[in-house]
Amino acid sequence: QVQLVESGGGLVQPGGSLRLSCAASGFTFSSAAMSWYRQAPGKERELVARITTSGGSTSYADSAKGRFTISRDNAKNTVYLQMNSLKPEDTAVYYCNAREVLLLHEYNYWGQGTQVTVSS
User: What are phi and psi of 45, to 5 degrees?
Assistant: First the structure.
C-alpha cells in the first residue's frame, strides 16, 4: 500500500522558516521523482519544486526560487522542503507527490497534505 505522509506544516510569521517532510512507503522510493505542490484556497494546485530520483537535479517554480530548497534522503525514503523567508502568499496546503514509471506506465501518488499558514 502506497503511503506518502507529510509533516512539518503550521503557523509561521512572515519572514520565518518551515521544513516540510514527506515519508514514503509502499513503492520504490529511489526510483520515483518527487515533487511538492501546493494549493491555496480558491486556486488550482501548483508545482512548487521537483527533484530527480538521485537528487542530482532540482527545479523550482519562480515563486520558490531562492527561498525554498527541495532535498531527499533515499536511505530514509523521505523528501524535504525547506522554506525560508516565507510570505503570506505562501499560505496553502502543501502536498507531496511521487511519480514512478513502471513498464512504461506512469504512476502518480499523493499525500494527504499539510497546512502552511504564514501570518502575523
Answer: -65, 135
Report the alpha-carbon angle 47-20-110, nearest 5. Answer: 50
Q: What is the pLDDT of residues 74-110, one digit of tens each?
A: 999 999 999 999 999 999 999 999 999 988 999 999 9
Sign of CA pseudo-dihedral 63, 68, 72, 76: negative
Give the chain's end-to-end CA distance (angstroms, integer). Answer: 40
Q: Which amino acid is residue 6, in one-letter code?
A: E
The string of DSSP letters for 36-47 reads: EEEE-TTS--EE
**Tell me, what DSSP letter sits at residue 75?**
T
